[in-house]
Amino acid sequence: MTEKENRADRPAHRAGTSAEPPAGTVPPNSQPADADHGLGADVIEVRRIAFGTAEYELALKLRDEVLRRPLGLSIADDDLSGEEAALHIGAFARRRGGAEARLVGTLLLRAAGEGALQMKQVAVDEALRGTGTGRQLVRFAEALAARQGYGEIVLHARETAAPFYDKLGYAREGERFEEIGIPHYSMRKPLGGAPE
User: E strands along the chain, which residues?
Assistant: First the structure.
């Protein structure tokens, strides 16, 4: 991917901030993990996904399977405008030493006001839930956002997912509300500086 293409597929960020990690690298707190979760996978690698690629299409399919179909919805009915400007992140499972990897998790980040990004569409393959894959995705997203100069991440967490974000240091704000027919909480987390 050229630097111009790389800049084109991410939200604008504040001037004077450090560059994001090179494509294919994993920021601190999100290193590839040894695992075997019934998929024959030995390694989970988290990395950026470019908009409009085959990997992006796989991410859409996973989002549909995990987040929409269980509610009787389809991602084909979602408004995906603006996704070309979002940061897309994927978790890939592969056998140790193997070249072939399978997308098992995804999320996206969108600009959400001055100095903030909104984390959206966090989806992990059902077979890998509870294995740390979601945590790796979120930590990668946080490190990427911080390196680009963002000060916080905000999100709307499904009520069933809110405890996951609680454990990662996100704070609930306001009352529970309904979105896409299910209960959610607004949550946020400041980035940079706070030890884990």
Answer: 33-34, 43-49, 87-94, 101-111, 116-124, 152-158, 171-179, 182-190
